[in-house]
Amino acid sequence: MGILAANIVAFGQPFAAYMYPAAFLTEHGETSDWLLIAQFVLIDNKMRGLFTLLFGAGLYLFMERTWSRGGTRWRQMWRLFVLLIFGLIHFFFIWYGDILLYYALLGFLIVPCLKWTAKTQLVTGLLGYLVGAILYAAMLTLPYLAAETSMGESGPFTEMRQGTLDAVQVALKDGEVETALIKSGDFAGQIGHRFSEHWADPLGNVMLFSLETLPLMMLGVALYRFGFFSGGFASRKMRMWGWIGVSIGSAWFLALGIWLKSVGFSYYAMLAAFVGWSAIPQLMMVVGLAALMVEYSPGWTGWFAERVRAAGRAAFTNYLGTSIVMLFVFQAWGLGLFGQLNRPQLYIVTLLAWGLMLLWSKPWLDRYRYGPLEWLWRCMTYGKIFPLKR
């Protein structure tokens, strides 16, 4: 559900609008600016971070069960290859904001490390994340300084400034091409555009996000083995450090968001803030949120909690299913709303999609053992048909 809240702008507006509100095809007024800040504080990077942490934990959970049956890590590698195929289909034929493809690729690198000691995995994850934070800050601060401060007006930085500004125009031009294809209803043209112009984007995502994703996956493995997700830590400490992490991280993102508003949400300031200057507060929030959910979720009961849990058990189907639903909402051959909705209206679409997830997931799982795509992935992983109906 949180991933959709992060992605909805890129579904309903040009892809560049995700981080650059000037790319919106509708007005991005004061209300939208503050909603952007709210998303920046509460959603952006945190949902992906939680997903990455849990993806790592899931890799080890799967291997625990596989090892108990006498299996090997090759089963996990095959499982990730199947996920890679799902990701390729999602990226090229449904929506090129796919995350599964590069998670599968990076998962291949985690599998050989699963038999390390939990302590080694924890230290490796923390050190790797720290190195990544330093490198991200270094890589993304310089383009901001060259393109959007007076530093770019002097000496050797003038050429860099022009190059960085040209890169913005290239991204916006590509968005114009994609927008024209969507608005014309030329779905085949969109697919062709992805194959011709964006075929290397998944590899680019691997390179860009690997310094965050690999360490977080490793931390997920280590935390799972230490019992973080299953009551292995004292509740008082989990709650205390959870609230500390969320509070400090939120304060940092709020201050950074207000600064971004003061500079007009410029392109390279946004890029630097999203990726370059937020890694450590992001980790604090991600682990803090995970700790608080571990502690508070057992006491969360009732019909709504049951439906949220069911949506989580069908998360794979809900993730890919949402992309398909959004095709019908935004494509010209559907409702044709691409580029028509402002940020508040896009969040209304998000709420409606959440309602759809909550509406179907529990009744389905009351009757069937798995979500549809969860079942298909399981069958492909083991090469046999599992019973679906309860």
TrEMBL record:
> Keywords, A to Z?
Membrane, Transmembrane, Transmembrane helix
Pfam families (UniProt xref): DUF418 (PF04235)
Signal peptide segment: none
Tell me the domain of life.
Bacteria
Q: Which residues cross the membrane?
A: 47-65, 77-95, 101-118, 125-146, 206-228, 240-260, 266-294, 315-338, 344-360
| Residue ranges of every copy of the DUF418 domain listed in the record | 223-384
Protein's name according to its UniProt entry:
DUF418 domain-containing protein
Q: Which organism is it from?
A: Erythrobacter insulae
